[in-house]
Amino acid sequence: MKQAFITGITGQDGSYLAEFLIGAGYRVHGLVRRASQANTGRIAGLLSSPQLHLHYGDLGDAAGLVALLAQIRPDEVYNLAAQSDVAVSFQTPLYTADVNGMGTLRLLDALRTLGLSATRFYQASTSELFGLTDGLPQHEGTAFHPRSPYAIAKLFSYWSVINYRESYGFHASNGILFNHESPRRGEEFVARKITRGLARMAQGLQGPLRMGNIEARRDWGHARDYVRMQWLMLQQESPGDYVIATGQQYSVRDFLVWAGQELGVDLDFKGSGLAEEAIVNHVHGDAAPALRVGDVVMQVDPRYFRPSEVPSLLGDAARARRRLGWHPEVSARQLCAEMVASDLAAARCDAMTRVQG
Prior knowledge:
Elements: E1 3-7, H1 12-23, E2 27-32, E3 52-56, H2 62-72, E4 76-79, H3 86-91, H4 93-113, E5 120-126, H5 149-168, E6 172-177, E7 180-181, H6 190-202, E8 209-211, E9 217-218, E10 221-222, H7 223-234, E11 242-244, E12 250-251, H8 252-262, E13 265-270, E14 277-283, E15 296-300, H9 318-324, H10 332-356
Parallel strand pairs: 1-2, 1-4, 2-3, 4-5, 5-6, 6-11, 7-10, 8-15
Antiparallel strand pairs: 9-12, 13-14, 14-15
């Protein structure tokens, strides 16, 4: 039975990857940060599996990582842990740099120290590396221009992986993942903020969304598709770096409109700049009983603008298609529908609980 070690196993990607690997017959070890409240909700369905083993630890603890990897001696390592909120990285740049940058280096060097150079290593890189670079779509040869402490720290990790590959012969690869979402996405991320917020408004549980740059354009895919690609990268004879993307681009505004339509609500946009609002202009069906024509569901709020914006990201995954036979199975519109359905079910439960209470 192959041994896999996943950092960030309690996150969106970690939970989908753990399910995939257990289904493929792996014994999965996951790194979990100790917290005062339970943080294993996304992997709750796996906790009874004899193939899953959780270990407390942190990417900031070099000695602890060495001890843990010496115990597990994994065949594959998937480094998914990170301070993953781009906006928060502007507020916590030193912490972000340590976890997202130095954390990767600690893992790589722990493997080198233990003589585990045969262990295959996957690094969760990001489309944020491209930032303000010229030209679309962005591919493995596109120049990087990171625009946040998050992206800068991830760039350090990207080159650390390549350095250990070239210097020590590691089978180490970067997955340059474009935006990928799911019903398990954190509530602070824009796509989930939209689907959860509109679902709760539809049930009368909250007021209008406050949002930043709704003109930002992104390449959105499903996390379940993307973790399959992460595994594929480590099954190749030779390591390499791959863009993982759908090749389709939509704006935050588009995602907002789609989410409304999934709830039977059509939206109009009034005003411009900081005065822009999204307003209900038609309601059909019964999925949004608390919304009426004329209701405001979104207002632009300058507090949600970043100090430096990334206006447009669009990926070219031709290398992944050509070498690995990978292609995404879920479209952005299908992804939005799945997220809305999940968030609407949760909102209805919350609304029922409020009534009964």
